[in-house]
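Input.
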Amino acid sequence: MDNRLPLLLGLAVLLQGCNLGTFVPAPEPEIPPSYRKASADVPSNVEVQWWRMYRDPVLDYLVERVLERNPYTQFGELHVAEGQAGVLAARADLFPNLNFGASRDEGHTSTNTPLGEVLQGGTIAGQSNRMVTNTSWQVDLWGRIAQSVELARAQLGVAEATRRSVALVLAREVAVAYWQFRAAEADHALLEQIRAERAEAVRLIGLRLDTGLNTEQDLIEAKVKLARVEAEMQQAVIKRDMNEQELAILLVEPVKDFRVPANPEYALPDIPKVAPGLPAIILSRRPDLIDSAHRLRALIAQEKIAETAFYPSISLTSRYGFASQDLNNITDNASREFSFVPLSLNLPIFDAGRNRANLQAARLRYHQAANVHKVTILIALRQVDDALTQVQAAEEQVRILGEALEATHRATHVAEARYALGQNNYLAVTSARDESLSLHRKRVRSHTDGLLATAWLIEALGGGWEEPAETGAAVAATD
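Output.
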């Protein structure tokens, strides 16, 4: 019988394996060689502390302070620590378990049982003391425990992707709120100058109305323009305050006490040049793609675990201890008791199709996730190209508006010179200045759009990371 056991075991495994079918992983997604709006010849220049490319000390301070203090940062770190604990717990099943137990009980048998009749109405009473050591080890012949460890490692990868996502989103939110704050601040300063010019125009038209040089309609239109700019000033104040309050919340500071450092000479920095590099880079940088790849890795491990349900489970168990009615002699040689099972075999024979259904469900879950992963990659690539388009459009608008602004500056100088020579009235000067300041506002908005677009671009690229990350392209990995 002992000689037949290996043969029967091998035959059972072979028969079960033939009925499972072959698991076919999804093919790796195709990645284009370059982006539509960027050359692949220029390597990526996104650093880990990507916000420093703006060269704005206040922004550097705010981002790094938020990454240090915001509770979501600790959430990401705790999530990773939980994943690490899960890996250690899964690995523990690869090794034997050793347990110690001790018990004390008293017994009294019934006289109204067959045993009581044998004892002629007597009973067996007494106490027993036990100290037992139990050892068990499940032999991982089919890799079930190893795949459980792989599953835990994949879940750790998901946790690490969450931590990275939290850091990236927090930094981007700070950058967006900061640039919108600075834009509203600059807009308010320009609106103050426009308001001064329009107020002067209202005063001059009022004087000219008395002499018949202007009509009452002219005065009404001038007052309407003045009211409009005053309303826009209020909107700029609201935008500035709301973004400052957003920064306070991100910093976990009381809104009423927080203020962004003021600088009367502050100027928006140049729009940084961001080189995205090869499209494949985002597979190892974007947290959502890293998350998706690790989830596929976990589903592959689950599929392999479902396969092992068809094979026999083998375990080794043993028990050694002492039992005695009297504690004084519990450790005597005569009090020993033990059992040793060199091989415990459990082979599934009939389960009404449960294991096969579980395996089919695991494979279907994997292929569903693989399709979602492919779509996620396509969306990620599109987001990068969209952000590149926005950055380039903003740069072009800044260039065009800069040229137009130079023209309005010349027009203002001409108007001022003609007024000095008495060739026109001061209304022409205020009108030229108004036009120049309005164009300046448009240029500031386009400049801000470029700064915001770079922040969105860096998020679309997944930020910058020094440490190597497992690529999300290998969705078909089965190791």
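Residues 23 and 363 are 8 Å apart (CA to CA).
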